[in-house]
Amino acid sequence: MKTYRSNEEETNEDRLNRLEEELQECRAKVNRSLTEFRERLDTIQTQLTTLIEIAEAWNSWRGFARVMSIVSTTIKTLAPIALLITALVYFFKTGTWTWGSDK
User: Fold this and answer.
1) Could you tell me the residue range of the domain that residue 85 belongs to?
2) Within a domain: residue 65?
3) 102 has a pLDDT exceeding 70
4) What mean pLDDT is predicted for residues 37-46?
5) Whether residues 68 and 92 fall in one domain
6) For residue 93, what pLDDT is reported?
7) Is residue 37 part of a domain?
8) Among 26, 85, 82, 60, which Cα is nearest to 34's?
């Protein structure tokens, strides 16, 4: 905060003008801060709305069925790949494709 020292040569009108300019600067800063705050609130409101929609979809049967379908498809896709990688690692470590003690 600024301290105001009156200048002997400064008239009352000059002082009032200077203080009015300072007041306008403060108002502009407050308005900018309020605008930024409103923008942040709008962003938070959008995010909350999205979370509510996700929760509602999860709670509904259709949303649950979609998630289970995606999980099932992922498992069906990744399971053969994981088995192939496991078989290759086993082959490189043991030198054989057979399981057990048939060496």
Assistant:
1) 61-97
2) yes
3) no
4) 92
5) yes
6) 86
7) yes
8) 26
Residue 1, domain member (yes or no) = no
What number is the average pLDDT over the span 67-76? 91
pLDDT of 66: 83
User: Are 26 and 66 in the same domain?
Assistant: no
Which tokens belong to 78?
A: 């990744």
Q: Are residues 30 and 43 both part of a single domain?
A: yes
Q: What is the mean pLDDT of residues 32-60?
A: 88
| Dist. CA 1–CA 55, nearest whole Å | 48
CA 56, distance to chain mean position in Å, is 20
Q: Rounded mean pLDDT of the chain?
A: 84
- pTM here is 0.41
Q: What letter represents residue 10's amino acid?
A: E
Asked if residue 43 belongs to a domain, the reply is: yes
